[in-house]
Design a protein that fits this description.
The chain has 263 residues and is an alpha/beta fold. It is built from seven helices and 13 strands. The relative contact order is 0.15.
Length: 263
């Protein structure tokens, strides 16, 4: 099967029946993939729309295309997962953004904990967005994940009521596995289609403090662990999201098949 290549065009460059392509995507189309008028391309706007576009004009700095078909939520999961991730040192957060966008995460909340030191930077946030755009195109999604400004765990907990369930990583022998914690949070196999969203909180490599875990548990976060080996913070985030999305999407598919077989 031929690879389906996606181009990201911001919504403001998309009209009712045509698109304007400029900037980095214009260079990619004309220099890298060498597209010409009458060629067909797949465009996503990050808002859940995929467009089938035929190029009509290519100038020195921009190109135009005519929209022939629009599809909604291409490549998107049925479940919205938010990852609240303690920011690791260096560029490891960038790897996490890339891989978790591919996995299907809907929102990222950079988390500042008692054991996290991080300086906010506008340049860093622009780079983070560009990384998610590249990952969106690579994996064929149509909704660009939102990256919130960094917040503390206390601020996160105050805004957690919007989630159907809440999980927090805790490297403790008494903590359940991730799958058991999902069930502990009342996300049962037979009822997953009723749940629309959830959040996973991942701490730094040193973990959350006992006070932070206690605060989270008192606000209906269910702790879980990922086994005996201590993982890097970004690895724990990627693994947790992969397990969660696979479990939820498989369970929703199973539920739909069961309902179909009864008809």
């Amino acid at each position: 099967m031929k690879h389906k290549e996606f181009y990201y065009i911001p919504p403001e460059q998309i009209m009712e029946d045509r698109v304007i392509i400029k900037g980095a995507e214009f260079k990619h189309i004309t220099i890298v993939t060498r597209k010409r008028p009458r060629d067909t391309i797949h465009v996503v706007d990050g808002m859940g729309n995929e467009y089938l576009v035929t190029l009509t004009k290519i100038d020195r700095k921009s190109a135009e295309g005519k929209i022939f078909k629009r599809s909604r939520y291409t490549g998107e999961p049925n479940f919205q997962l938010t990852l609240a991730q303690a920011i690791p040192k260096g560029t490891r957060f960038e790897l996490l953004l890339e891989k978790c966008t591919e996995i299907g995460v809907s929102e990222f909340i950079p988390l500042i904990t008692e054991k996290t030191v991080m300086k906010q930077s506008d340049a860093r946030e622009i780079r983070w967005k560009n990384i998610t755009i590249a990952a969106l195109k690579q994996c064929g999604r149509s909704v660009l994940p939102r990256i919130f400004p960094p917040i503390t765990l206390h601020e996160l907990i105050r805004s957690s009521k919007i989630y159907d369930f809440r999980l927090i990583a805790h490297q403790d022998s008494g903590s359940l596995s991730l799958i058991d914690s999902i069930n502990e949070a009342n996300v049962k196999l037979s009822g997953l289609t009723r749940f629309k969203n959830g959040i996973i909180a991942i701490g730094p490599e040193a973990g959350f403090s006992e006070e932070e875990i206690a605060l989270a548990k008192s606000n209906f976060y269910v702790p879980f662990n990922l086994g005996d080996r201590r993982l890097r913070s970004e690895t724990a985030g990627i693994v947790s999201c992969a397990i969660m999305m696979e479990f939820v999407e498989h369970s929703i598919l199973f539920q739909k098949n069961q309902l179909s077989s009864k008809k």
